[in-house]
Amino acid sequence: MRLTVAGKTKDLEDGITVAKLIELENVETPEYVTVTVNDEFVESGDFGNTVLKDGDTVEFLYFMGGGSIAQHTDRD
């Protein structure tokens, strides 16, 4: 079957789950990844039973906390 994974077309075995795809793609910190299939979010508890279909588009998203450091300049 053909999938688009993170913007790249890939040929993979039929019946692959999101969990298996995460493993095959060597996703860093899989415990923190958010996955969309065809622009729909997949709950992390459903990765193991969400079977991908030919033509699906899968994206791996990482949400990071933090902010920016404000630079202060003296304009005296």
Secondary structure elements and pairings:
Layout: E1 2-5, E2 8-11, H1 18-24, E3 34-37, E4 40-42, E5 57-61
Parallel strand pairs: 1-5
Antiparallel strand pairs: 1-2, 3-4, 3-5
Question: How would you characterize this protein structure?
Answer:
The chain is 9% helix and 26% strand. With 76 residues, it is mainly β. It has a single domain (2-61), classed as Ubiquitin-like (UB roll) (Roll), CATH 3.10.20. The longest helix is centred in the N-terminal third of the chain and has 7 residues, at 18-24. The model has no long low-confidence stretch (mean pLDDT 89).
Strand order of the largest sheet: 2-1-5-3-4
The whole-number mean of residue pLDDT values reads 89
CATH homologous superfamily caption: Beta-grasp domain
Query: Structural class, from secondary structure content?
Result: mainly beta
Number of helices: 1
Number of domains: 1
Q: Summed up, what is this model?
A:
The radius of gyration is 18 Å and the shape is globular. The chain is mainly beta.
List its traits.
five-stranded mixed beta sheet; 76 residues; single chain; mainly beta; 5 strands
